Amino acid sequence: QVQLVESGGGLAQPGDSLRLSCAASGRPFSSYAMGWFRQAPGKERVFVAAFNWNGRTTHYADSVRGRFTISGNDDRNKVDLQMNSLKLEDTALYYCTAAAIVDGIDRGYDYWGQGTSVTVSS
What number of other Cβ atoms are within 10 A of residue 47's Cβ? Predict the structure, then answer.
């Protein structure tokens, strides 16, 4: 059983910063990418940021580029999302995800955390 556990969510004001963390645990885990999605109330879940372990490359949604930074640890089992200059529209439930190749098949983002809530309010 592989588990992804998010932490760091909370209440913030516009312009504030929050740092989210996602830790993978359980059975031996080997992913090629981890990332973050978010889902605002009444909205569809959308991509936020991704971290590819090979080359340690990053990708961001246009809405957060320049404000959010994703990073990964050396053991390839933890990613953080540093969120700066928060806006009201950043309010959402943030989900950690991991992509892995299992039994020779690319499963994509097949592992998900339970989510951590971020509320930006003035």
Answer: 16
